[in-house]
TrEMBL record:
It comes from the Bacteria. It comes from Variimorphobacter saccharofermentans. This is Iron ABC transporter permease. It is a multi-pass membrane protein. Gene3D superfamilies: ABC transporter involved in vitamin B12 uptake, BtuC (1.10.3470.10). It is found in: Cell membrane.
Amino acid sequence: MQKNRKYRYIMTFIFLGIGVVIFLALNICIGSVRITLSDILGALIGQENNETIARILWDIRLPRTLAVIILGGALSLAGYLLQTFFHNPIAGPFVLGISSGAKMVVALVMVFFMGRAVRITSTDMIVAAFVGAMLSMGFVLLLSRRVKGMSMLVVSGVMIGYICSAITELVVTFADDADIVNLHNWSQGSFSGMTWDHVKVMAIVVIVTFIAVFLLSKPLSAYQLGEVYAQNMGVNIRILRVFLVILSSILSACIVAFAGPISFVGIATPHLVKKLLGTAKPLLMIPACFLGGSVFCLFCDLLARTILAPTELSISTVTAIFGAPVVLWVMATHRKERAA
């Protein structure tokens, strides 16, 4: 039995790793301009004769694809942390209104600074998104103490999201025409326009946060078995909760700052990964969720770019198509388990 479990774990990680490599290659090769594997190899070793292909590869597709891998993994990991924190199978940055709160503050900052011709850095965007995420998270935490049951918490989060979205739309209404275009594209969720500077900043933030989350694997394992059990094992519940709130907010902020709000990835991917692994152990779930989120977002971004080319769909539109059925399945199975 133990050997079968280890074999399943190894095969799951191999499957997810291969998925990342395959969709990485497809996202780089497929587009309005076809790039072959030989073109990629030539560009990597500096022997690419076609300057146009080299620029498309280095300046557009490679940074965008790496951003999808990093932010997709971060989004899935944020969803896993929130589901663990609230003991709620459909908790996630988008559903609980955390992404909407981050979007609201980023929109306020963008309109304020753009109207004064002030340049906004990647760090400014992350800080603004983090403030918005913490504000929404604070309201969710307050409501979670008063409302009972999974459905009421989700409804509360949705309402917070609607309020934040309404404020964002109000801000956009009073923005300049040029700013409205940028805000509209960003607010719909998109990985376009990524640069190497963006990739560098998001990689540092996400890698540091990932390491911090991975170091919490043992306390999270005890926390999953109940607060009383965790306390008996010597886990400081209050400090653990603070870390979970801060780390999930940092991940959500990084995603919203660079790609806007993206729906359903944070909810659906952890459940799909858990089904593949056959276990909920954080030591395995944390890296597997990251890889799973990367695969899911790479697949959805590929469809968003190509399915109606040259028109590019919002990434949230595609993730909702594939993620929403998973959420419905989770809710149905959770209800059956409670009834049993």
